[in-house]
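Methods — Computational structure assignment.
A single polypeptide chain was analysed. Its primary sequence is given first, followed by the predicted tertiary structure written as structure tokens.
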Amino acid sequence: MQQNLKVYNSLSGSKEKFQPLNPPYVGMYVCGPTVYSDVHLGNLRSFLSFDIIYRYLMHLGYKVRYVRNITDVGHLENDADEGEDKIAKKAKLENLEPMEIVHRYTQGFHQVTRVFNMQEPSIEPSASGHIIEQIALVSKILEAGLAYEINGSVYFDVLKYNEQAHYGALSGRVLDDLISGTRDLDGQDEKRSPLDFALWKKAAPSHIMRWPSPWSDGFPGWHLECSTMSTKYLGKKFDIHGGGIDLKFPHHECEIAQCVAGYGESPAKYWMHANMLTINGQKMSKSLGNSILPRQLFSGDHQLLDRPYSPMTVRFFMLQTHYRSTLDISNEALTAAAKGYKKLANGLRILKRLQYQENGQTAIDEKINQQIGQFCDNCYHAMNDDFNTAKTIAHLFNILKKINSIHTGSLDISQLSPETFDRMKSVFLDFVENVLGLEEERPGQLDPLLDIVLSSYKEAKSLQDYQKVDDIRDQLKKQGIVLKDMKTGVDWAYEE
């Protein structure tokens, strides 16, 4: 299936056949979190999107080196080379060492990714651990004549770079428009042009996070760290560079410029961006009071939430929309996602118990076998179309209908060939659990307890103690579990 995979490349603005530079090896770099606050849902969606891409590439047999960095230095308050470092500011407010802040929020980020069942990256470098490499890249850009030092700070010369290469190739920005859109600072800024960006900043006396360099005691610019770490671990040219759509400009644009100036070429073959998350049609932001943290989703403790939602419900919700499309979060959408997730979870539970059996009397139905085979193929077709999880889920629900038909007895399992049954089971389990990363959310020791309850339920039914039957049903329903009286006996399912 590998040769059929197409991905949308932001650099070309179109879908391209995925052809790794050195197959079967794939190098993927994703801009990670800035660890001065809790991870918000918008960032979470971006990390989840690339978790899916990572999972599917591995499912296809690629050997993926997934690098996701930790930004723990150089991210200034207004992202325009001015103001305090956000981590240092937080450290001052809480009277802590900056690396205590880094450790706390890095641990918190990892806890969130584990709760959402995200795969760990192959390498997770931090900006503060690569100061030497960042200084070396600044020196290369200075040697190329595309940066200048002033008062101990070093800036990238965008106008001079644009004489040799296209600044704006990724974002589609036109330099003249960018220039006309900047304000004249009347000599208050030491940069030659408002478009220039910092490669190295001289630290003010009060600045906590600082390192020695040939130009001053200071710290690296925000854009520099990703250029340094991506190329160190993946080479000067690698396959995929990803992040949220908000990073496309200026962050990723500046990364390209730095790498072209310092190494002679753009770093990535494919640039991929996950779109933003809105809530009830509005952009999510603290100022509007509609920003929701993951833990608030789990507890339901937010003015815009009607109820709590589980991690797998939220994961399923985010996968129902293509990663390049805007995703709007609402109680209605999350409630629908909870039902959809539970349908898949019930399907997982049923399918894992199903065993193929021939009865020797039922003929194999070729039409049904072909239909199931097409459903399985469609899952690959959808994921090969730029990782379209929304379409993939729709095809999985088609398979789920057949699974449920077998479970209820309306479809005889002997109508399937052994090969079709095995493929149906393999594709459904692989795509739900390994590609989409959805797992069954169940309380600990659920099965032994349910065995006891089901035994009491069956006994009550045999004794025609219908009050006890109703009581057991009601108590289980409060726990999100429904009992089903079937031809084959009593079974249970997650309430949808």
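Note: The CA atoms of residues 122 and 342 lie 31 Å apart.
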